[in-house]
Amino acid sequence: MRALPEGRRRHPSRRAPVALAVVASLLAGAVACSAGTERRTAGSPTAAMSGGSALRWGPCPAADAGTGGAAPVRRDPRQRCTAVHVPLDYRAPSGRRLTIEVSRIRSGAPRPQSLMTGQGGPGGSGLDLPSQAVSALPVRVTRTTDLYGLDYRGIGHSDPLHCGIAHADRTAATGFSYPAADGSIDANVAWARRTAGACTQHAGSTLPFFNTVNIARDINRIRIALGLPTLSYTGTSYGTFVGQVYASLYPATSGRVLLDSTVPPGGVRAAIQNKGRGVEDAFGGFARWAADRDSTYHLGDSAPDVRRTVLSTVRELNRTPLPLMTGKSLTGNLLLEAEEALLEQQGYFPGLAELLGAAHAGSIPADVTSKLQFGSVFPDNFFSAQDAIVCNDSVWPKDVAEYRRRVTRSAAQYPLTAGSPANIWPCAFWPVAGSDHPPKPVPHGPHNILMAQNTEDPSTPLSEARRTLRAFGGRAAMVTVEETGHGVAMAKGCAADAVADFLLSESPARSRRCPAAQ
Question: In angstroms, rounded to a whole number, what is the distance separating the alpha carbons of residues 129 and 151?
Fold first, then answer.
């Protein structure tokens, strides 16, 4: 993931690699199975591969697992790791096993709570999330809670999945399906076909079993291996979808479930389809910010003027791309891709305004050009695992012509994303059906789900969080924060109080509205 500015680190999200490396330097500078069946088998003696006493904790593997190009995390010296073995196919529990790498930071409290932290994305490693959560969660929580993390099945140090995707098909510019400058998706279709073909050739019969349902089952298997009667969970972005499935399959043993920046029911495909709405929401916050600083960035002195400036610049660059000193060219759609990434946090707004202002002026200085890394390449494991989970979780259209029609409609409705939320993925040519599709949210059960959501989130819009809240009925409540950006700041302030009260008690979650953290 992109590194957040110091002092603003949050529970990290791992979204689809939309312009992740395109602006990496700039950022730093500026279900087939029912829930009832799962509950019946969860605590059975044969369900656990190993008891809690059998786990051997030791130093964690090297942090450079190569999943997603993220900068190495500064590990807490208390963090230790172990391995838990799970079935590749839970319908054949005595068959092939996978190794899941698990991490832990013990709080030292006499009767600690236990909280699993789940990675966003999918595609990146979550092994060091406990080290990040120490500063991202309220102090009241971290000093009394043992924090756990894991690399999801197929990712990082958990028996990684490799499709052998070609080097040229793993760049930032191919990783998220923005159409070409003229609106064509021909290059996207060819990329999607090649990527699916690589997984067909290299991943073999294991491919269907990398999905969110099995990830949730793995977390429950870890709970059993740890000897815990319940295991609470928190996740951001895609990690919230893991949490929804976990809470739906295991309502009695999932403990407290905290969802930060919620992916809606339907999973990553649904989240992608709603990004047009999210980017529009977040751009409003940025436009107001930039309008207040028009004397510096010259984008317009009102939010509507800033929007008009950006869209006119995009149209001009799509007609006549701007040559960069790197030898590449900046089209309007590539500018939008970079903008989308920089809307993730308010701390990135100065860098975004600088980029947009330079593009509007028609001359991007060398110091800005050098920060645009359109050719940066992501590891094979990142794309392999991401595509397997996304494609196995949902049924995607197969008709290429339908994608062309949807892209055109999306671009007209949400011009700031140029039709990308409706564009094609490798899933259109996916060779297998997933072994399990995720269940719908289960509204019957303990009131043990709290959602935390910013009002202007570019990746997981508030409207979809509200839809998830309704789907869980009385089981869930939501803390809404008046903030622009993806990922709620939980270390202090109103949101921190709400989160700590929820995680450290057994009382039903309570909805509230919070101002932005100061």
Answer: 10
